[in-house]
Input
Amino acid sequence: MTEPLQMNRRAAIGLIAGSAAALAAPAVRAQNAVAINVHYSMPAIFKPAQDAVLEEFSRRFPNIRATYLNPTPTYEDGAQLVLRGAATGDLPDVSFQGLNRLRLFAERGIAVDLRPLLAREGDPAKLGYSPALLGLGFHGRMQAGLAFATSNPISYYNVDLFRRAGLDPARFPTNWDDAIAAARRIRALGDGIDGMFYRWPGDDWMFSALLYGHGGRMLNDQESDVAFNGPEGLAALTLLDRMVKETGMPNYAGTADLQAFAAGKLGMMFRTTAQVRGIADSVGSNFTLQTTVMPVIDAQKGRLPTGGAGAMIVAKDPAKQAAAWEFVKFATSAVGTSLMVRNTGYVPCNQFAIDDPQYLSEFYRANPLFQAATKQVHLMIPWYAFPGANSVRVTTVMVDHLARIAEQKATPEQVLADMATDVRRLIPRG
Amino acid sequence: MADAAIHRVAATAAVRAPIGEAAAAWLLTAPAIVAFVLMLLVPTIAVCLLALTDFELGVPTFQFVGLDNFAELMRDRNFAIPVRNTAFFVALVAPLSILMGLVLALLIEANPRGRTFFRAAFFLPVVSLMVAMATAWQYLLHPTIGPVNAILRDLGLATPNWLGSSEWALISIGLISIWENAGFNMVLIMAGLTAIPRELYAAAEIDGARSAWARLRLVTWPLLGPTMLFVVLITTIRAIRTFDTVAALTQGGPNKASELIVYTIYREGFTYLRMGYASAMTVVFLAVVLGLMALQTRLIERRTHYG
Output
């Protein structure tokens, strides 16, 4: 729908003069400005947030000219872009990467250690960086990045199906026994309706939620051997096995789970809060969607993994590095993180924005679906990134083994033993 | 400028024909040669060299490791499974999509009514973007809300988890590939059919080939030979290099049940970042494909060219 464009000569001259002035203005300012290139991934989720951050940043720091490179569609593409750039010498100055990939850049000497830059600022707590938040970007003995947008797994459920199955939607199961029982009742409605789907495929993130939930960890403290093959790991796999056995949980490929849920044929879904907006859009007015915290496994030791993106500095030139640091600091400040939350629904990454109601309380009142994740912030620990060259491969190996449980081709005990053997071969020998 | 150069070459060619002609020939083929060297030859050589290193994306240094990558390949279960899957896949997709293409072409040729419509309808998968089509297939084959399983349920038949179970995932990808390739083959075969002189059918009829089947066997099939050679080659290649449906629909899962070789190479190089090892896979892949092509061409060519 384009309106016919009509212009007289004077208007045209005015327009040309105006745009020339507009073009000239930043050029004058840029005389002593530092220019930095910033790269991020997943524009479908992050573009509005990044645009808002950049606009505010440019207003506050007129002598730093930050520009976004063409965003890459996924975290994986984003990692490839920077790794390729490292080989050809064509690197951005700041890059937003998946939190579990920061380690890879730390180990390959691409990410700049932020500790000296942080030290110059004094107490990190004064900037709103709590030790837990800093921990999300601490990898390979260095501060490889700062968390920019974080997520954790939450429960999504179909309120209408809960009612039809005679369950109280206001009292969502708080433990897995009840969740499984609820799933059975929803499935009993028939008509192709399934009770629940726990999103184990794709990567190890949701499995780590079950493992951390029992208080387990992937590797031991020295990272010399696997640690998931103990009772916690077995309990995690047994729980997955029960979901399949007792609720008939289907093995959905790709995004089939989201389609079934949006069609009103799935009672509960357990997956990242990052998709709240997308899922709410796809559900529309088909039924009432509700979100809440994950069922609790171990009230004391239980933790949840943190997904999302972190900002890392790649620039080696001191002037660019200083400018890049200002940008990263702003993006992760209380103001920056509030802009991010309002435009994405991710969890804030600055303690001030979390504690001080002036930043986000209004947003959460207006968008209750986003609240579930914020209620679990105290449980969040880093998404474990495996050491060494096989960092990403390990996660695929784990998912492949989980598929054997989802298809009921092996018992949890067998899978745990095989998984331990395979992962052991892929981690560096300490 | 290029024009001027050609004119100059043409002018000198008039004086000293042999050298000038050769120069003109080189000049005219130069763009193709440059493109071939830059786009195909150099990258292929680069891949062969990388296959002998432990190059990893993002690691500044790499070492020459000789044939270590190839030795590792021979022992790698993660390579053996996709090789087996790909062999099964080609054996399923190539014959069925050629057969379907042939049947469709013959049916459409036999009946002029609606020819344009059917030709367009069956050719549609070829011109449409496979990733977009994959999304449609994901919905059609959805285990609970998909129309395919809804029909099967109404008929009282079993409803497989087409893309989510290791029994069916590879077969489902194969069925989608057959659907995609059949239309392509149909168009190629139809082109071959129109090239058969009509008089031959008339002559065969006079000579006693009364039934349509006899004419098909005695005239159509032998004269379609060269076309079929091309169709067999191109379908095999297209099946071997299937990537997009796997990447979009199953990501090789569950537990590598639907992982095909090109997807494995992609994961190895770009997800696991082991470029050297991925290059070794590519070299093996390339050698096998070229060998297969040479074999097919030699076997079939013997029976298709009449001269």
Summary: Residues 68-304 of chain B form a domain with the MetI-like fold fold (CATH 1.10.3720.10). Chain B has a mean pLDDT of 87. The longest helix of chain B spans residues 17-50.
